[in-house]
Amino acid sequence: MSMSTFTKTGALLLLLSFVLTPSFAQAARKAKGFPVSVTASDVQEAYEDGELKVLIVPGHEPGYGGAVFMGVYEREIVSDVADELAKELRRDKNIDEVIVARSDTSWHRDIKRYFDRNMRKIKNFVEDNKEEMQEKIEDGDVKPLGEGSQVDHAAAPTDVALRLYGLNKWANENDIDVILNLHVNDSPDHGPTTPGANSGYAIYVPDPQFGNGKASRPIAEAIGERLNDFSATSTLRIENQGVAEDQTLIAIGANNTLEVPTVLIEYGYITESKMLAPQLRTTLAKEYAHQTHLGLVDFLADRDASGDSTTLLPYEWEEMPIVNTTTVDTFALQVALRTIGLYPPSESSLVPCPISGTMNECTMVALKAYQKKQGIPQTGLLDARTRSALNSQFGD
After folding, report:
1. Are 349 and 223 within one domain?
2. Do 230 and 339 belong together in one domain?
3. What predicted TM-score, i.e. pTM, was given to this entire model?
């Protein structure tokens, strides 16, 4: 090689080093977080192709665990919601399969068999993922969510935690596309018969640093938009954002143990009056299931889902509820007034005036506003003339 050729070649290489080195340096840097395991588009394409598989997980174990207040059990409420949600999803022709992880009395047979045969593998799976998580934290690839940046949760007993992790492993291995975890919230500030201070719904999603994190959030936001129509967001700090990111909840993939998009829905607090009313049990289960389905389809089809926005309407009112009693009639009334912007009353919100099914001051004030618009006496009661107007507007 001549000196002239060497000089030209060296100059070219030197120039390229200035141009390319920054790009090489960027590529060489470690990506923050875990590799993305799934995207929102992946899930939407599965739905479009009619191949979507959904796993519904009612919170806690068959016959064990969960919030309890005045004889009302979270695990039973969410089992009812799960059954109603499964019915709705199975009517959707774009959803190929719906699996409910447990009933009131037992795990789904395939999941139970998996637990029985693979507990050692599940333990190894947990240990490996915890080790990788710690390594990424030490290397600066994952930032731990510090104190005050996420809600504190009660730790699950060891055997329960292993089954939760095992459920994640099973979902990864069985081509599940979306997981919906259903819960009712609780807080330690309530007494044996006195409710706590908090109310409202919240939806938890995995930390976006996890492989399934970024695909999970839009699902939560879409479901939250639907729940907003009938419930306030939680009054607890962090939960009051509606959607809360979390690193520690096993059900949504703690230690990056889930490759599947997932949300954990807390429909409300178990001390809320509507949760305690047995006469509203079926109504609530159907309504929560319906709003969850609509929100999921809003996300999957990237549009507002068609169909009725509530299971409560149309409705026929036949009698006048007694003041301070809780009935399905009043629940339907509050929903109907909500759809036309009269509930909660002006200058109020769904926090002090929740849709509860109770004929109280909030409902009576809203009903007077409706009566005024209809040109009938403003009694604040569901009297005969008011029932007739409502049935004409909201009945069959």
Report:
1. no
2. no
3. 0.91
Task: Check whether residue 212 and residue 84 sit in a common domain.
Answer: yes
Cα–Cα–Cα angle for 76, 79, 80, rounded to 5 degrees: 90
Pairing mode, if any, of strands 262-269 and 178-185? parallel
User: Which alpha helices (DSSP H) does the chain contain, by range?
Assistant: 3-28, 40-48, 74-90, 109-138, 158-173, 213-227, 273-276, 281-300, 328-339, 361-374, 384-394
User: Are 261 and 344 contained in the same domain?
Assistant: no
Tens-place pLDDT, residues 79-107: 999 999 999 999 999 999 999 999 999 99
My answer on whether 371 and 277 are in the same domain is no
* pLDDT tens, residue by residue, 228-251: 999 999 999 999 999 999 999 999
Taking residue 350's Cβ as centre, other Cβ atoms within 10 Å add up to: 21
For residue 293, give its domain range.
40-300
Contact 196, 269 (CB under 8 A): yes
Contact assessment for residue 217 and residue 208, using Cβ atoms and an 8 Å cutoff: yes
> Are 181 and 125 within one domain?
yes
* Helices and strands counted in the chain (H then E): 11, 8
Q: CB neighbours of 113 closer than 8 A, spacing ≥ 6?
A: none
DSSP letter at 200 equals S
120 with 267, same domain? Answer: yes
